[in-house]
């Protein structure tokens, strides 16, 4: 069975809202595709308080004010196929922990209604008493509220406006609830009108607050063709402070702003007198139309049609110089200033002046906004789908670039200087002063300003929308990374995504070769900062003094008391032990000292630090191993105990006496019948209780047996007695560490987590929990194939374990279990913690020739690197491992003004996989765009083709593309002279095809291309001994356009745009059908699972899978194979790409057969992992999911089985539940639940989960580690 999990959650922001959810605290609520996040507004910035997963696609968010309070509840509207209106409440418990709770919901689903064509939204009246939802054509759902809670029964009202583009509640003083509506009428005209929501009559009669008016197509020429239709902004009434009894200049009755066209229009509410006059005319017209005289009724109807077609003059207007407006927010409570953002991230402030007129002031450029929220003190939150969300501060004066235009204003737009807005200039100059001639008439004022007014305070990573992706080991560390084609508009980018910790380099010390181990030293034991670093090679020891960020000095060994002519096995600061006689009972205490113990293969050496000379000086008498005829092979030191392993299998425990002499407490010889004396390979005596100066346990490992034993130090009588030992490990333990990952100090403490960690010679780390004097819960983490060394380190303010082998990882404790976080480092011989004044909380790493100092951060986060491309929006990417380059197809569009032609330029670019510099580019013809990119599996030779690119010729008058090209490129990065005449990217072959090359694949030296509704097979041939060309050798035709194509060996899987999938075999270059599925799936992405199975996603946000069922009795003439659908699952997101493989580094816990199959990428920025789970485990996990789903209900009373059932535009199917897939994210909640017994027992014996709790935990931890 396949398990669906999430590696990176959706990051695209849908809506945002500023409100107060608790007393005397303001909040920012951010709605992403399936999650709400709540932030509190603090003086230091935004602080995340809580989040809530919504089992549905969020399309709208609103606040419901509570009576007599500034607090609000939240309204969340989810999209089809199961629209719901969910009422949420913010709750803070006695411990101060906050959460969002779902209390009520309104089910909006109607199987027989037609979903709304343009807008699914909810509008809330300013009083918070009524909300109106539009999610079906010609119908509004009205919901009433009292004190933030639903009251009454929601009801439907029918309206004749079928194609709503926008709606909002008007800011009127009347008791009626007036809804402003912008719609597309039956004559394809854009009309603005208003309707009163009559609660008593359950109807929506036409309102006279806003007379119906037809909007000009010259102002709104693309109202129904752009992604964002026009928006309505309600404006409250305003009384000018300068108005007197005889003048109402600057005052207005309130109204609505219409934004999204070439002009911003303001329509004022009708006065009461005008409303009464309109009502009288309407009554008389209705009376005449109902007259018995047909001619009079006909005349009345004609006059009514004439009245409907009239255009009401706007109160004020101003030209909009840029692209479609996608977001807005008010900047004050009076409705005088608004912030507008367009599709390319350009922000402008729209303000009313005292005319009243409209003034448009450019502010700056940000990420393309899908939502704007003004917080406080000129701080604005910008939520984005195409770029990183941002927290901005808008300054009143420029902060940079004072000589540059804030935003470019196109020619033909009348502009005024900022001085024209000054009150001192009132009446002294023309309000529409033209800086350039050629304006399109008078109206509001567009101000030309210069300088940068925007300061970015914070950014929030967003990788949506992911159009394509590639998986590659970019740095040779063995850790795969994801490269995504993300962003759009003015924020196109490549995103490099990987899991694990980030190492931030602080300093490098060159010329330090062959280091095998390192230790930090302090001047005194109780000091908190390190001052020295000791490095050891196989032949010598070096001492380094850390003088500052830029100065690290190597001490002269001839003047230093530390042994420099021999390698060091262990070294550490120690306190001085003092014996106290209390009534005949001798106890020990410890006091601060400058003593240091150094252990070499020959002796145990004692020195002390002389602060006056800045050197270490010998002190006391050494303990010489040669006197016993042995050498020291391993050692470990804590504050009072020195444990050494001697050759011949002897372990000796030492301490320091009062006369600075080493004394032997006990020795033990280890031997084995099969191996004789057991040579010691590694030792650890690190205390589990770090507040103590001594350890009560020792870990020791042995050559030959590959075992690790735990020895007791709890009492003198039990010194060095074996408590337990491991079975024979897979390889020799070369590094050991006893470590307590919890905050508890003793066994009685709840958070006491003692562990044994063993770094093996084969590149793996083995961990055990040490509990009840036994080693339990074995886990194995793979770090390559080089011996692993272990050391403590500080990451994100917490002490963790740094493990270095072929690859490096940080092991840390979280959610009551041990986790592994890969670090992008290679060629690291050893690591050691370092906490000096110049380098606090750092890690020093030894390479083959240098020392590197840096910080480890983000162990529990994924690392995302952004390669900004700006207006070059990446659409396709392919990685060439031989050339170490990325081939990226980009489309560049110059930001147009609304209704003006968009100039697009498509290109194919090569990027270096380390620096991401642009190595070469190929630009298509003006009417041509790159549609597909394929990296050819060559070794990277410059004379061989490395990339195949498919293009399409775009002609607006064609319903289906008729021309395209297949291009073959080679790349010569070593060329000395790269120019337009001698380029690095060489076009070696080109072929014209009859359509768009949607996809291409490489099959046994052949190029298979999906061209419109055909699959064509090409072979590349050398012509005339030098040039290369494409030769068509086979073709397979389909009924529908083939948009997806993947290859597995000689099998090609084809997905078409309408129907389903087909499986082909490329035999001798000629494609033949293996099997086809004929069900209408509308697939959008597919990938092979081996040669006999397929996984895919369709436009209804479902995942599906097929298995090939071969004909048991094939004949020469006929082979009736079938594709059997063996999986269906509702994901709730549109998948754009599948990639075979996984991202997490492999770690193994027992024999649980779980392995990653595929990664998938969606338009909302989600990265998911599909894993394969063995049937005997999947059976138990499916039963667990079923039992959990009966108790865990989603917000809005969404039940898990229905939520994951495959869906179409009519809703989820009651007849077909999800099958073949398991919801891994849902099942993993088991690890966080306290009472799990009910989930295992079920409601009957048939529902009982027979797998033990411990094994379920191990399986789910394994599952969690793979994503």
**Average pLDDT figure:** 89
Structural class: mainly beta
The share of residues in helices is under 10%
Number of helices: 7
- Indicate the low-confidence ranges by residue numbers: 426-442, 976-982, 1146-1150
Strand composition percent: over 45%
Give the total of beta strands. 94
- Spatial gap, N to C terminus: 17 Å
Largest sheet: 5 strands, mixed
Identify the strand order in the major beta sheet: 88-90-91-1-94
Which oligomeric form is depicted? Answer: single chain
What Rg, in angstroms, do the CA atoms define? 36 Å
Anisotropy-based shape: globular
Domain RSE1/DDB1/CPSF1 first beta-propeller: 15-398
Domain RSE1/DDB1/CPSF1 C-terminal: 906-1231
Organism: Postia placenta MAD-698-R-SB12
Region (Disordered): 273-313
Walk me through what this model shows:
The protein is mainly beta. Among the domains are: 321-410 and 444-462, no CATH class; 518-628, no CATH class; 1038-1111 and 1120-1143, Lipocalin, CATH 2.40.128; 1174-1266, DNA polymerase, domain 1 (Orthogonal Bundle). Helix content is 6%, strand content 50%. It contains seven helices and 94 strands. The strands form 24 sheets. It has a five-stranded mixed β-sheet with strand order 88-90-91-1-94. It has a five-stranded mixed β-sheet with strand order 22-23-24-25-30, with no helix packed on it. The model is unreliable at 426-442, 976-982 and 1146-1150 (pLDDT under 50).
